[in-house]
Amino acid sequence: MQAFDERGGPPRRTVRLSWGLLSAAFSDDTAGVRWYLHVESGEIVRVVEDEHPPGRLLDAGFIGIERARSKEQYRWMERYIASLADRALAAELARAISGKQAFQRFKVVLAAHPGRTDEWHRFRSGQLLRYMHAWLRAHAIQVPGEVPFVSFAMDGDEPSPPQGPPRGRLDALLEGLSAADLEALLALAELLDLNARARRNQLR
Fold it and tell me: What are the domain boundaries of the chain?
């Protein structure tokens, strides 16, 4: 099924896929490994290139998933630093990412500040989702119940005060969601769970 882009772009293909697997594909930096998406079925496969030449997959209707390059991921760190209200920490992180081994030094500085590593992972998840959306648009792919961008409070932000008991707020929220919204919410939970598991595995 195809839908025309409202902005006059090429027709978009509607493809059902797993947001969790798509997130894993974009997050996998393993050398010699590539992920592919079938543009009709939504199937996502992980391939070791030395064992499985990609030509057959491309001929079968798959396209290679283009992971964010180091330059793009470096921009994510810059955006995180720019968003910090703690300017002393921002200055420390800015010095850390200047020069070689920027990613490693960035992580070391964050680890010295309790709570900042988790905050960075949440911020990075939002940047990854934005990149995934852009990649799908570039390939004229529309996904039913797309996962929305993730947002969270940074330093200096004032969260809205809670209204009513938590369970009552949750019930009211769920009642107001459509089936597509519920599907997107479950996919987002799956994505965040995969990211959390990946971080725990890295710490082992």
Answer: 2-29+67-203
